[in-house]
Design goal:
Layout lengths: L2 H8 L3 H15 L6 H12 L6 H11 L2 H6 L2 H5 L6 H20 L10 H12 L6 E7 L5 E9 L9 H10 L4 E7 L9 H15 L4 E9 L2 E4 L7
Parallel strand pairs: 3-4
Antiparallel strand pairs: 1-2, 1-3, 4-5
Helix pairs in contact: 3-4, 3-7, 7-8, 9-10
């Protein structure tokens, strides 16, 4: 056996797998890879000297999908055996990058003409949060985004919303329109009676000052609901 052959024989068994997976990604693109394999590529960076295929599959089994792995809280990720701080950080960086990418498709474009991009962004930002968040997108007179802010974070099934605070912030930003968004960690985006009542309070407070509320979108793991589309506002 030659020296090069001996060196190759001494390499860990997962080395060849890593290079083959990278080559498939380079030559055929992401569509040629399963979700757990995309996750493996991310894990290669934070866990350089270990076979990460079992860990990638464990994460997929624990959370259900690639999106849910990336959206899981840091505390929940740490409960999976083999996940350390470097891995948690890398997963959160990928999540942040995906959210920035989704948001970039909305910047300097009238959001009412790119509604599917609004939904995609909201899902990337909120669908897999384990606590309710109430988010407001503030728009100018051309319906372009001035600001996108999480106003409140609550519990697994409730977020306190203060209509006066929403309107006060809109006036500070000179916003002329709003899109309200919140998530249902249960996964079911069906509006509750409390959601409908809160929406009416915000609409009443905003319209009295000439601020339009275009919609209230509820995001769940399994889809989304539009209160305007459901004729609930």
């Amino acid at each position: 056996m030659g020296e090069l052959d001996e060196d190759k024989a001494n390499l860990p068994h997962y080395t060849g797998h890593r290079e083959r997976l990278r080559e498939r990604f380079r030559s055929a693109g992401a569509e040629a890879l399963a979700d757990y394999e995309i996750l493996e590529l991310v894990l290669f960076r934070s866990i350089p000297r270990q076979d990460v295929k079992p860990l990638a599959k464990d994460l997929m089994a624990a959370f259900g999908s690639l999106a849910e792995v990336l959206g899981a809280s840091e505390a929940r990720l740490r409960t999976v055996k083999g996940i350390g701080e470097a891995t948690v950080l890398d997963l959160k960086v990928v999540q942040a990058a995906s959210q920035r990418l989704a948001r970039s498709s909305l910047v300097k474009r009238p959001v009412l003409s790119s509604w599917s991009a609004v939904i995609d962004y909201c899902r990337a930002a909120m669908a897999f949060e384990d606590r309710e968040q109430f988010r407001v997108i503030f728009l100018d007179k051309r319906n372009q985004i001035i600001a996108d802010e999480v106003q409140q974070t609550g519990t697994v099934d409730h977020t306190p919303v203060y209509p006066r605070e929403v309107v006060r912030r809109a006036l500070e930003l000179s916003a002329t329109a709003l899109i309200l968004i919140h998530n249902h960690p249960s996964g079911d985006p069906t509006p509750s009676r409390a959601d409908i009542a809160m929406t009416k309070q915000v609409v009443d407070a905003a319209t009295s000052l000439g601020i339009a509320v275009h919609d209230h979108i509820i995001i769940g793991r399994d889809g989304h609901a539009s209160l305007k589309g459901l004729q609930l506002m």
